[in-house]
Amino acid sequence: MTKVALIGYGKMGRMVKELSVRFPLEIVAIIDPLQDGCAKEISDTTLGDAEVCIEFSHPEAVLDNIKQVCKCKRNLVIGTTGWFNHLDEVKMLVEASGIGALYGSNLSIGMNLFYEIVAKAARVFSLYDEYDVFGLEQHHRQKADSPSGTARELGQILLDEMENKKSLQYGKPDGKIEATELHFASVRAGWIPGTHTVGFDSEADTIELTHRARNRSGFAIGALRAAMWVKDKKGMFSFRDFIRD
What we know:
Elements (H helix, E strand, L loop, with lengths): L1 E6 L3 H9 L5 E7 L12 H4 L4 E4 L3 H14 L2 E4 L8 H11 L2 E4 L5 H17 L6 E8 L9 H13 L5 E3 L11 E8 L6 E7 L4 E7 L4 H14 L4 E4 H6 L1
Parallel strand pairs: 1-2, 1-3, 3-4, 4-5, 5-11, 6-8, 7-8
Antiparallel strand pairs: 6-9, 9-10
Helix pairs in contact: 1-7, 3-4, 5-6
C-alpha cells in the first residue's frame, strides 16, 4: 500500500482522490492553502506518513512546493506545468535531497503513447522533402500557461526527430516562417479539456495525428500509477521513463 499526500486540491487534486480507490494506495494528507479543511503548508507534520506527494497546484506555487517536499525528503510526482525553465535547479534539489521525483508535461498514459507515435511518424516523414510539419494545441480559456507543456514536449520531439527542423516557433509568426522553423500554434477558448494535433502536409495531401482528452481522468490515473512506480526510486525521472519501463 502506497501512502500519498496531495499537494493542491483543485479540480485535478479532487479527481486524483476520487480515483485513488482503484489502486493499492491511500491518501493520507491533503495540502492546499486556498481550500477549507486542508492543511495550509508542507511540513513533516502535515505530510504525516506519506511516502509520495502528488503535486497538482499552480505554476506560481509549484517551485516552492517542490523545495518544501525535498526538505521533507518525500518522493514526488509533479503534475503541474509551467516550471520547466527551472528543470536543472529542480534536478539538483532532488539529487541533493536523495529523493525520487517524476515529472511530465502531461501525465496521461494515452498522451505518452501518443508521444511515441509522433516520434515514429516524424522519423518516417523526415525522409521525404515533400512534407512539412506543424502543430496545434487547444485548451480551455482558464489554462494558465501557453503554449501548453504538452505542446512544448511534442515540439521538442519533432525537433529531435526531424533533421530539417532547427527551431520552434510558438507565438504569432512575424511574417513568413523559414523552412527550418516548426510552427506550433495555440488556441484558448471555452471549456476545451485539451486537444493536440501534429500534421504532416504536402502539396498532395495532409496527414494529421490527434490526441483529444475527453476529461481529466487520464491525468489522474497516470499520476496515481506514477506515484506507485516512483515510491522506492531515487533520482529525477520523466513520465516517459515510467512508460518505457
